[in-house]
Amino acid sequence: MSAADEEEVNPYELLGVTMESTEQDIRTAYRRVSLKVHPDRDVDAGATARKFHELNQAYELLLDPLRRMALDAKVRLKEARKARFASYDTKRKGLVEELEARERAFKKVRVEKQQEERARWMENERIMEEGRRLKEEREKELRRREEEALRAERERAGEDEPPELGDLDTTIRLKYQLSSHPMLTTPASLVALLSPFGPVDEASMKLILKPSPPKKPKRGIALVPFKQISGAFAAVCASGRAESGLADVEVGWAEDKEPELIGWLKRKGQLGADGGVSATKDAQRKQDADQPPAPAGANPLSTSTAPPDKESGTSFSSFPSTFPSFDAPATPSTKLAETGLDYESLTLMRMRQAERARLEREIREGEAAEGN
Length: 372
Fold this sequence. Notes:
- This protein is an alpha+beta fold.
- Helix content is 55%, strand content 6%.
- The protein has a 4-stranded antiparallel beta sheet with strand order 2-3-1-4.
- The two termini are 65 Å apart.
- Keywords: Chaperone, Coiled coil, Cytoplasm, Nucleus.
């Protein structure tokens, strides 16, 4: 008989019952045998656990009527084959065993071939996945370099362009004690205090007195929007100065940070680090004399300066006389205009050319190394 048939586990033999045994006989045999092969009763837990698992599978199979009928048919067929094989002469038995051995060898070769093909397919998939990953990383790195180069090019091109004005860049915040300034309890009084620095948007002003009425307020907090950022900058620079009427008044930006436009002017050298103006006083006075009053709705980034305090004679910090115009459109260079390329397209084109030259150089070096 074949080795496969001999290695098959017979559930009846595991439980020590026959095909004519009843379900009660099967349960009784299962309890008897399970006590002998239970893992807790044997030192060799691994082998015992395997036997116990096989015993449970045989027990479940024999208690299932349909599966037991299929098993009985298989056992009868096996016994019939065994009886038929026993009736063969020696020569015929040898032929049958040789045929079964060839079948087993063929099956083994087929299984090994399938396993080898599957292993090769998995290796190909792994290599392809690794290639896709490397390609994505290379493309990502290339995009990152292009973005960095483009960003650097934009920064170089945008050094002469002022940043946009934020929503709160012209708004300042005042904090003061009412014991020092008892008159600053209304928006009108704040407008009178801050008007020397520049026009104030009284309609958008926000004043809060603490504690709230009916308790007697002790301190005030106000958000004051100027119509021009120059006025807000002058007021912030005059924070706490008695000659400006802001003694014991803390003046700061509404967003607790300096607007980008102020920082840009300082980097350009048009404003000092302490709020001083790089332009001379004569240029400031000439600009104030030549410049007409700003109409309603004018650009808040206008170059107008804050008027001086007539009583004290102190001039407040203001913007430089040569402030860049925000209305004039940016004109590209003559060379770019002639070629029809902008900075972004030109930068990408140069990067692609450099990458192509690098690849060609690497290919030539590789070919030279292989030739050697």
